[in-house]
Design brief:
Layout lengths: L8 E5 L4 H12 L3 E6 L2 H10 L4 E4 L5 H15 L4 E4 L17 H21 L1 H9 L5 E5 L12 H21 L5 E5 L7 H6 L11 H17 L12
Parallel strand pairs: 1-2, 1-4, 2-3, 4-5, 5-6
Helix pairs in contact: 1-8, 3-4, 4-6
């Protein structure tokens, strides 16, 4: 089995920071064709300077009106799609606070980014993923999860609830799409030294946190196993 994802075509949301940026770097190094999505044009353009073979797309997955333009640009850039990584995430309220003190708008943002965004984008790209399967490839959708999806952590209510919903959505998508040759998996990369984690836990010991490059390598290795596997994979999660 080769380490390379060539010629697999991969889209990564939240691709200019943290795990997303590390995934762009890792996947390009393994020979994949990569498009990445992020909200801020200036950051997207800077990232494209660093990775000129990647295609940067400006868009916000939490906004319904951005989804189809994102999908069209992904397909235009890559000529199809084999792997979608729904990585963009929102904590909800910052700093984190109890549910009783959480504004409805903060819950809405967490759900829009962490649940509805992956649902809408997967749905918009489903035809391309099905075409990949018909061409004999093994298309995969990776939804980035968290241990907060299964554990009830105080003050993480908006984030945890949205990630729990995404985890179950992932399992349903996988059950429904396996016969079409499309696999949908959930990956918990663990607690990482990222800007998002620093917002959530500003006093954390960064030296004790996982490096996003390590998580990106683990996810790339998982993709290599899934995309070269001839039989249907089971839902696989990377433990923290």
């Amino acid at each position: 089995m080769t380490d390379h994802l060539l010629p697999f075509r991969v889209a990564v949301t939240g691709g200019t920071a943290g795990l997303g940026l590390s995934l762009v770097r890792e996947l390009l190094a393994r020979g994949a064709h990569v498009a990445f999505v992020a909200r801020h044009r200036d950051v997207v353009e800077r990232t494209m300077i660093d990775f000129p073979t990647a295609r940067g797309i400006v868009g916000d997955v939490s906004r319904k009106e951005d989804i189809h333009p994102i999908a069209i640009q992904v397909l235009g850039a890559l000529g199809g799609l084999d792997v979608l990584i729904n990585n963009a995430s929102s904590l909800g309220p910052v700093p984190l606070r109890p549910l009783a003190d959480t504004a409805c708008e903060d819950v809405e943002l967490a759900l829009a980014t962490n649940l509805l965004g992956p649902f809408r984008l997967t749905k918009a790209l489903l035809g391309a993923l099905a075409a990949s399967a018909r061409a004999g490839r093994t298309p995969v959708v990776v939804n980035i999860s968290s241990d907060a999806a299964v554990n009830a952590y105080e003050n993480w209510g908006a984030y945890g609830a949205s990630k729990a919903a995404l985890l179950h959505l992932t399992r349903i998508w996988d059950a429904e799409l396996t016969d079409e040759g499309i696999h949908v998996v959930s990956v918990d990369p663990g607690d990482m030294d990222t800007a998002l984690h620093a917002l959530a836990v500003p006093d954390a010991d960064r030296s004790a946190l996982k490096r996003p490059e390590t998580a990106a390598r683990e996810i790339a290795e998982l993709l290599t196993r899934l995309t070269f596997r001839q039989t249907n994979p089971v839902l696989e999660e990377i433990a923290s």
